[in-house]
Design brief:
about 45% helix, Nuclear Transport Factor 2, Chain: A, 2 domains, single chain, alpha+beta, 4 helices, six-stranded mixed sheet
Amino acid sequence: MDYFKCNFVYYSRKNSIMKRIIFFLIMMVISDTIYSQQQKLNNTETEVLNVIIAFNKAFANNNVEEYFKFIHADLTLFIASSPYRIDGKNVDKEEFVWSLKKERTKVSFFQELQIKVQILSPNSALVTYHNRGAYGSEGNEQILYLKESNVLVKEEDKWKIIHIHVSN
């Protein structure tokens, strides 16, 4: 009986080590695949992606001024929490600032997932991704999983977001 227990423990440890090795190998393949997909971006796609990453970083940091540097004056916006379209950068900024003051949309965590950049023309691009974030006042945050599409236009050698659509 003791011999069986000893072999079982050895098998369990050996099995656990094998599981760890297999897990490690799978993670290497996944990260290599993600890395190689990122390497396939051309210069324009990389430029657009960097704009979206900086835009979302400003959003995640609740930095109003930095956030609106990426927004086109003629913005149209659909968000999951509103039954209406928001028209114009100034209207969006007004609502954005008000929501932050009320801590309704205060961000404590934000992450983009599965980003896809599509260049539609030399001066237009579409970026789609899933995102997850924690919104609300400290201690009352709600985790949301959303889908987002951003349309960008290039004017005066700068990419600006002209349309945003966020949905559940």
